[in-house]
Write a structure and sequence with these properties.
The chain has helices spanning 17-34, 38-51, 56-68, 72-85, 90-102, 106-119, 124-136, 140-153, 158-170, 174-187, 192-206. The chain is mainly alpha-helical. Among the domains are: 8-83, Serine Threonine Protein Phosphatase 5, Tetratricopeptide repeat (Alpha Horseshoe); 155-207, no CATH class.
Length: 207
């Protein structure tokens, strides 16, 4: 069961000369990140921060690059600074939660995801990610509610359909789990894991 992160994004260069320099360096980091060269991306994001410590996007994207190289503690620290600079940054709360989840701080992750959805009630990924954290803590009813909300917000959220089925299996609601897998495979027939899980479920139901 996986959490979901966001992609890197560019910043438009402003008219201020100092800002132009930091943003040019920052955008170069985004280019490296988009190529999968996270080491060079980190170097450029760090240089951009040295030029302008108030450049929230640089902290955010350096955190994301650190996540990509599995420096989850470093990522949490950078997201925390991004949030301090922009308290309403729901994306940063979501991603910080994802890194806390990787560090097995599932309760801390849930707090961050809850803040993300408070700031952005339509944030399907944050509901999904909170469901993952709830699942890890065996809070299946809460996980079910979060996956259901993610599906309500995004009917084609394949991972939410699959993981809701897994929760229903834990709750021994096998027929409803099978229905979720059927729905998932109807709109995404390439979701391989769903076929295996559906076959397992059919055997349980047919006993």
């Amino acid at each position: 069961m996986k959490t979901l992160l966001l992609s890197f994004f560019l910043v438009v260069i402003s008219l201020c000369a100092n800002a132009q320099k930091s943003i040019r360096i920052y955008n170069r980091g985004v280019e490296f990140a988009s190529q999968g060269n996270y080491e060079k991306a980190l170097i450029n994001f760090t240089r951009a921060i040295a030029e302008d410590r108030l450049l929230t996007e640089a902290w955010f994207n350096r955190a994301l690059a650190k996540s990509k190289v599995r420096d989850y503690n470093g990522a949490v620290e950078d997201y925390t600074i991004a949030i301090s600079l922009q308290p309403g940054f729901s994306l940063a709360y979501n991603n910080r939660g994802a890194d806390k989840n990787e560090l097995n701080d599932h309760a801390g992750a849930i707090d961050d995801y809850s803040q993300a959805v408070r700031l952005n009630p339509g944030y399907a990924r944050a509901y999904y990610n909170r469901g993952v954290a709830q699942f890890h803590l065996a809070k299946y009813e809460l996980a079910l509610a979060d996956f259901s909300k993610a599906i309500e917000l995004d009917k084609n959220f394949a991972d939410a359909w699959f993981n809701r089925a897994l929760v229903k299996i834990q709750l021994e609601d096998y027929k409803s789990a099978l229905s979720d897998l059927d729905t998932l495979l109807a709109f995404m027939p390439g979701y391989v894991r769903a076929y295996q899980k559906r076959d397992e479920l059919k055997k349980i139901i047919d006993k």
